[in-house]
Automatic annotation (TrEMBL), chain A:
<dbReference type="InterPro" id="IPR050107">
    <property type="entry name" value="ABC_carbohydrate_import_ATPase"/>
</dbReference>
<keyword id="KW-0813">Transport</keyword>
<keyword id="KW-0067">ATP-binding</keyword>
<protein>
    <submittedName>
        <fullName>Sugar ABC transporter ATP-binding protein</fullName>
    </submittedName>
</protein>
<keyword id="KW-0677">Repeat</keyword>
<dbReference type="Pfam" id="PF00005">
    <property type="entry name" value="ABC_tran"/>
</dbReference>
<dbReference type="InterPro" id="IPR003439">
    <property type="entry name" value="ABC_transporter-like_ATP-bd"/>
</dbReference>
<dbReference type="InterPro" id="IPR027417">
    <property type="entry name" value="P-loop_NTPase"/>
</dbReference>
<dbReference type="InterPro" id="IPR003593">
    <property type="entry name" value="AAA+_ATPase"/>
</dbReference>
From TrEMBL, chains C, D:
<keyword id="KW-1133">Transmembrane helix</keyword>
<feature type="transmembrane region" description="Helical">
    <location>
        <begin position="12"/>
        <end position="33"/>
    </location>
</feature>
<feature type="transmembrane region" description="Helical">
    <location>
        <begin position="264"/>
        <end position="283"/>
    </location>
</feature>
<feature type="transmembrane region" description="Helical">
    <location>
        <begin position="157"/>
        <end position="179"/>
    </location>
</feature>
<feature type="transmembrane region" description="Helical">
    <location>
        <begin position="235"/>
        <end position="257"/>
    </location>
</feature>
<feature type="transmembrane region" description="Helical">
    <location>
        <begin position="289"/>
        <end position="308"/>
    </location>
</feature>
<keyword id="KW-0812">Transmembrane</keyword>
<feature type="transmembrane region" description="Helical">
    <location>
        <begin position="119"/>
        <end position="137"/>
    </location>
</feature>
<feature type="transmembrane region" description="Helical">
    <location>
        <begin position="210"/>
        <end position="229"/>
    </location>
</feature>
Length: 507, 318, 315, 315
């Protein structure tokens, strides 16, 4: 029985303080197959595969590799058992060369001396196979993000692994790079290597995989044969309900006469000549592929990154925020994409997290008005339905969704007029997602705020936006009104700059 | 002994810089110490007055640093190097090289081998003098029935101060009348604030501890302040309470002169800083003039106890 | 909930250590708990305590201040110089001195915040340079001869309580007030815990760093003035090595050197522990060499224990 | 490509500083560039140079080792004790001494890696405790009376080249070899640059930390032996404060205190700069108080300049 499977994860459970990331998940990988792992953001895909490498130690459950049973893994054990993993976050060392990164942790060596020549030779071969032109001697920090990812992929392949796990490997790649990666992956399958492939792009799943395992909200949902499944079915399994229900309805509340935010020819931080307007009561969606420069645009508007040229107006008045503080004071708020790094202050309480931007306002002679402080926190706990026994609870003990609500509360407390949401529902479970959508609706409908929403989830983008602006490679490539929303058109805009650059290259 | 088969000595071209007087290199243990800063300040004045060229450095009580400094003196072509060694043994080698290079070497404090002359201070003997001065005070104020409770204040991480502290204990044994004293504590204190804190603690442990014999200025200042605080200020200190140490600094002398503080005697050397500096310069002149010290190159520095009676003379020369 | 209990216990643990030490020293020498000795002990640690306020803030930010000892020395010299050699009015001298120490702190802040130097290097450079400056000003000689009035800060009493102990208590109260009641305190925790998030919440992190280093300079200056008054003599090396004693107080008090976590009450306990050790070991007449060993071992055990607990919790 | 040029320039910049200093000192006193003085200068920095190898590794990892000075002192005492008081064979004494210093390094490694203490605290605790131990063993007195043979390490010559300079050169070569050629040297960069990535690539980060602290202990021990032979007398405070001199050499050499970036050649330049400053300022007859100021200012400027460049690049 176990002969058939090279890797089995049985009844894996992983708890974090306040969050259960995985509940009783079971996965079985056959020899020579590609198993796709899908699920919404935060479904637990990355957490699950990290259990295979020891990057995450499961709270309970078993990991069986080639018939050998483990409670948990270590990176060394994983390597010994022929498991190679491409992680979603970059895992490279910037000051080392591409070749050395390729062989990180298992260099070619004679005795204790590393054989750089041999590593560079082998690296050149590996890059050749992937049809990428990287000088193996180049330092990692001098490579573009796409190339860095290709090194990661080459690194995993190079390990002669029996089991290859890829967590959204295609995300930062151009379509040509994705193509060459696919060819390699297919060749590896032919050689009998078993692969787990994680991606949000369903067309990739259909192109590559033999079976599909769906996770939702940390739970195992179903395993399907790719050939027998349909897109609609998959989406339903992932989301847990019909898509139409996912987005709460919103009345028409746009006040065209009031432009809350206008940017003109904004350039800098990797973006070029961005011009857009957000009206009172409007949600403007900002679409594009990963790396399109949307976060960069948000940072510029929020004063967190320097802009080179262009103008910005809030309610018709020109503003020039050079720091987040100045942006906040002009009524701009940013709910950042990377919640753990940029949003949540994990070591301090919910109350403090909510009040952070308004402490100065609620202080006399720098002494905090503690009544106001508690009242504010209490108000937004109620408004946002934040699930917590106490406002003094530390942020790190909350679930991702509740953390996101706290951050939202922070910006509502700051009384911002324009709220920028960068991937507002990334890593948030379906229930909390719906609540956040409702909050966004209330914000525009009842409170007359304006929202700029960055999202990589096509459904979310189309479901929530009143208008969509698409970026690609730091340039605006298209703008769609609600009636024009169409997945294919958006994708086309999103890859426009890329294809044109590729065309130039090939010419 | 010093060897001549090495590179340091090859730089023996200690040609005098045109026109000027002789060049003197001085390295001492620490200039961050008030006694040394005081004496060296006076010495610098004298050297300038008489037109000598000189370099004065301190080695922060680090032997390797001092070796390096002497090397640098050899390179810079000094005619005389005076070393106040952090560790005499450590600089013997390099001083030998200096001699081989034709440079005169003088050691302050230790009876070194590879030198032209030594201006020595036997720290154990100095300690014994402190002990003796303390003993005199004890003998005058205490009896066998009510012996004096003594605390010594030292700094046992430094060799010379350790020797000095040992000397103090020996001196007390030797010069005190039978059974009139008892050492109840030995604490560390080279900096005034540390000495102050430790003396305070000792006074808590032994409220009847009245005699404090220490190795230097910091010990005296700290102990004096602690006692002033304990008894409620100047003038309130009982007759039989006393602090006795060595080093001659202005603050110590003023405390002594005041007469109503706890300072009872200071064991000094030639007298004031100026006196010491003058005596030192005299040594330089003797050595530079080519005087032959081969008979006995150890010139012993005099020590004497300064008391209220002659404190004014000393203060005049500070 | 559970983690709250653990934290509470952890915060209390340092007090348990203090109680344990008090018991040991009392058994060894009952005079240890004599009220007089307790007051003496408190007076002895008052300089650590005062300087530890600023250091606590700096460490909460995840930085470190190695210039504390030198600031103490420098202050010793300039304050004495102002009063003795320039005949300046005592209060003016004190104000100017505190201003100077704050400016040195600002210099640290400039290097860390604006230039972007690691705090350990920036403050070490300041330490070295200002040590030299203090020596130049004083010529290596002590400066003394202050007015009787000036002695109050280090030697005076209010009732039976020594003035430096009162100053320390006020400083701790002020430190605790800043940390818990003012928005600056919230900012310190936020910056130390997650500097990126703090920036994006509108905190001007650069200014906060300036502020904290300036505060650290100020309290070091205050400690220097108390020391000057206590010893009644200004020396250019008076504060030599003090920074590590102060850091030890703060770290023993449970403030995380990586920033973001710590309480003033813990620092109070840490300061008292150092005081109890220094005082108790002298009372027990323990050899000064052995005292070093005990200090090292206590620091390693206290912090090590804490780290092991944290590691356990993380898994 | 452009950034490569910047980096190259940056790596070279420290050599330009060195050349600049050499020119200044030569103008001030032509004896400075006398070959004899150069050899003397090299001999003077040899202890810094030797100890800096291990410190470089530690700092590359993003940690710090404050125990270097104490290890030097401790080694001074035990090696002297073995040879003089126990009459041990010189080579055996040296081997045992190096072993002991390596074990102290392992103790640091244990506290940092296994217990999880911040390196600054762990190594400071070791510093304090072993200082006490060295004093106890020596009783505070210097130990001397070594054989003529033993003097070779610190005072001998091969041709005109002093032996300690040769030892330093060999150590730098070895350090460079370890960093550039051996797999664990490459791991140091990986761990210092991205500890998570290193872990997930199967690098046993815990062991690397043990290794690096042990190496740091070893080289500190070697520096201690060279010092002992050079001054021909063992003192329990011989290495006092050396750690900061060594850290200064390493940091001046462009090694990033946050880890992950740095080159041995830079450290060589950093060491020579310190040597040139110390030697040149004495030759120029600069007041020793002023020397402190110059040291502090040079450190602040060199590192500050580097940080500003980095900041510019990041924007
Ligand atoms: N270290 C952690 N502490 C607390 N919660 C965590 C931690 N790591 C992950 N989580 C939570 O576990 C859940 C699953 O996250 P995971 O990264 O596995 O999702 P994913 O399916 O890979 O999502 P994505 O598609 O966005 O990559 C999320 O709710 C996340 O917030
Ligand atoms: N500090 C950095 N160093 C190097 N590359 C960076 C840095 N920050 C961002 N990038 C890269 O710049 C590009 C633009 O990133 P950005 O996050 O703005 O894209 P985005 O459109 O917001 O995508 P998404 O939010 O969907 O990830 C990406 O390729 C990203 O990886
Ligand atoms: Mg993921
Ligand atoms: Mg983004």
């Amino acid at each position: 029985m176990s002969e058939e499977y090279v890797l089995q994860l049985e009844h894996i459970r992983k708890e974090y303080p306040g969050v259960v990331a995985l509940k009783d998940v079971t996965l079985e990988l056959r020899k020579g197959e590609i198993l796709a792992l899908i699920g919404e953001n935060g479904a637990g895909k990355s957490t699950l595969i990290k259990c295979c490498s020891g990057a995450v130690i499961p709270t309970s459950g078993k990991i069986i590799v080639n018939g050998k049973e483990y409670d948990s893994m270590t990176p060394q054990l994983a390597a010994e058992n022929g498991i190679a993993i491409i992680y979603q976050e970059f895992n490279n060392v910037k000051e080392l060369s591409a070749a050395e990164n390729l062989f990180l942790g298992r260099p070619i060596k004679k005795g204790i001396v590393v054989d750089k020549k041999a590593m560079e030779r082998e690296a050149a071969k590996a890059f050749e196979q992937l049809r990428i032109k990287i000088n193996p001697k180049t330092l990692m920090k001098d490579l573009t993000v796409g190339y860095q990812q290709m090194v990661e992929i080459a690194k995993a392949i190079q390990q002669d692994a029996k089991i290859l796990i890829m967590d959204e490997p295609s995300a930062p790649l151009t379509s040509a790079e994705v193509e060459s990666m696919f060819r390699v992956v297919e060749r590896l399958r032919k050689e009998g290597i078993s692969i787990i492939y994680i991606s949000h792009r369903l067309e990739e799943i259909y192109r590559l995989s033999d079976r599909i395992l769906v996770l939702r909200d940390g739970e195992y949902v179903k395993t399907l044969q790719t050939s027998e499944s349909h897109v609609q079915e998959l989406i339903k399994l992932m989301v847990g309900r019909e898509l139409t229900e996912t987005y709460p309805p919103r009345g028409d509340c746009i006040d065209k006469s009031q432009v809350v935010l206008e940017v003109k020819d904004l350039t800098g931080n990797g973006d070029e000549n961005i011009s857009l307007k957000v009206h009172k009561g409007e949600i403007l969606g900002l679409g594009g592929l990963v790396g399109a420069g949307r976060t960069e645009l948000a940072e510029m508007i929020f004063g967190a990154a320097k802009r080179q040229s262009g103008q910005m107006f809030i309610n018709g008045k020109e503003v020039n925020p050079k720091t987040p503080r100045e942006a906040i004071d002009t009524g701009i708020a940013l709910v950042p994409e990377d919640r753990k790094r940029h949003g949540a202050m994990l070591g301090i309480s919910i109350k403090d997290n909510i009040n952070m931007p308004i402490y100065e306002k609620n202080s006399t002679l720098s002494v905090i008005n503690s009544k106001k402080e508690v009242a504010t926190a209490e108000k937004y706990r109620e408004n946002m339905a934040i699930k917590t026994p106490s406002l003094h609870q530390l942020m790190k003990n909350l679930s991702g969704g509740n953390q996101q609500k706290v951050i939202l509360g922070r910006w509502l407390a700051a009384n911002s007029e324009l709220i920028i949401f960068d991937e507002p529902t990334r890593g948030i479970d379906v229930g909390a997602k719906y609540e956040i959508y409702k909050i966004m609706n209330d914000l525009v409908e009842k409170e007359g705020k304006a929202i700029l929403m960055i999202s990589s989830e096509m459904e979310e983008l189309m479901g929530m936006s009143d208008r969509i602006v698409v970026l690609s490679e730091g340039k605006m490539t298209g703008e769609l009104a609600k009636e024009e929303f169409n997945q294919e058109v958006i994708m086309e805009f999103a890859s426009e700059a890329r294809t044109s650059i590729e065309e130039e290259k090939t010419v | 002994g010093g060897k001549s088969d090495d590179g340091g000595s090859a730089d023996g071209d200690s040609d005098k810089d045109s026109g000027g007087k002789e060049k003197i290199g001085i390295t001492i243990q620490s200039l961050k110490n008030d006694y040394w800063a005081g004496v060296m300040g006076k010495l610098e004045e004298l050297l300038k007055e008489e037109g000598y060229e000189y370099t004065l450095v301190d080695c922060s009580d680090n032997a390797p640093t001092q070796v390096s400094q002497i090397e640098n003196f050899i390179t810079s072509g000094c005619d005389l190097i005076m070393v106040h060694p952090s560790d005499a043994e450590a600089v013997e080698g390099i001083c030998g090289e200096a001699l081989d290079a034709g440079i005169k070497v003088m050691c302050w404090d230790d009876p070194m081998e590879n030198t032209t002359a030594n201006w020595i201070l036997d720290n154990t003997a100095l300690g014994r003098d402190i002990g003796e001065a303390t003993a005199e005070f004890i003998n005058a104020n205490y009896t066998k029935d009510a012996p004096a409770k003594v605390c010594t204040i030292g700094y046992p991480s430094t060799k010379v101060l350790l020797e000095r502290e040992t000397g103090i204990k020996e001196g007390l044994e030797e010069f005190c009348d039978d059974g009139v004293f008892e050492i109840v504590a030995s604490v560390e204190g080279i900096e005034a604030d540390k000495a102050l804190a430790n003396v305070e603690t000792v006074l808590q442990a032994h409220p009847d501890c009245t005699i404090f014999a220490g190795v230097g200025a910091g010990a005296m200042i700290g102990a004096n302040e602690a006692l002033l605080q304990k008894f409620g200020g100047a003038g309130k200190i009982p007759e039989n309470v006393g602090v006795i140490t060595t080093d001659v600094t202005m603050q110590q002398l003023e405390s002594l002169k005041a007469g109503d503080e706890a300072v009872r005697a200071i064991v000094g050397f030639e007298g004031s800083s100026l006196d010491t500096a003058k005596a030192c310069l005299e040594m330089y002149k003797r050595i530079l003039s080519g005087e032959d010290f081969s008979g006995d190159k150890n010139v012993v520095r005099p020590t004497r106890a300064i008391t209220v009676d002659d404190v004014d003379d000393i203060i005049a020369g500070m | 909930m559970k983690s709250k209990v653990v934290y509470q216990l952890k915060d209390k643990a340092i007090w348990l250590v203090l109680i344990f030490l008090v018991i040991v020293f009392t058994i060894a020498n009952p005079r240890f708990v004599n009220p007089n000795n307790i007051l003496t002990l408190l007076r002895q640690v008052s300089m650590y305590g005062i300087a530890s306020i600023g250091m606590t803030f700096v460490i909460l930010l995840g930085d470190i201040d190695l210039s504390t000892g030198t600031i103490i020395s420098f202050v010793n010299i300039i304050c004495a110089y102002f009063m003795v050699h320039m005949g300046m009015n005592m209060w003016l001298a004190i104000i100017l001195t505190l201003l100077a120490s704050t400016v040195i702190g600002l210099l640290n802040g400039f290097m860390v915040s604006t230039v972007g130097m690691p705090a350990i290097i920036a403050t070490f450079a300041v330490q070295t340079a200002f040590q030299g400056l203090a020596l130049i000003i004083s010529g290596g000689l002590p400066i003394n001869g202050f007015t009787e009035k000036f002695k109050v800060f280090g030697q005076g009493y209010v009732g039976i309580i020594p003035v430096p102990v009162i100053i320390m208590a006020l400083c701790f109260a002020l430190g605790s007030f800043i940390l818990n009641k003012t928005y600056f305190g919230r900012y310190f925790y936020a910056v130390g815990g997650n500097i990126e998030a703090a920036k994006l919440s509108g905190i001007r992190v650069g200014r906060i760093k300036y502020l904290v280093f300036a505060i650290s300079g100020f309290f070091a200056g205050l400690a220097g003035i108390v020391m000057l008054s206590r010893v009644n003599s200004g020396m250019a090396t008076a504060g030599l090595g003090y920074e590590f004693d102060v850091i030890t107080c703060v770290v023993l008090g449970g403030v995380s050197v990586t920033g973001g976590y710590g309480k003033m009450s813990g620092v109070v306990a840490g300061t008292f522990i150092i005081g109890a050790l220094q005082n108790g070991m002298v009372l027990m007449n323990i050899n000064s060499y052995v005292q070093d060993i005990v200090m090292g071992v206590v620091l390693a055990l206290a912090v090590g224990f804490d780290c092991i607990q944290k590691k356990r919790k993380a898994n």
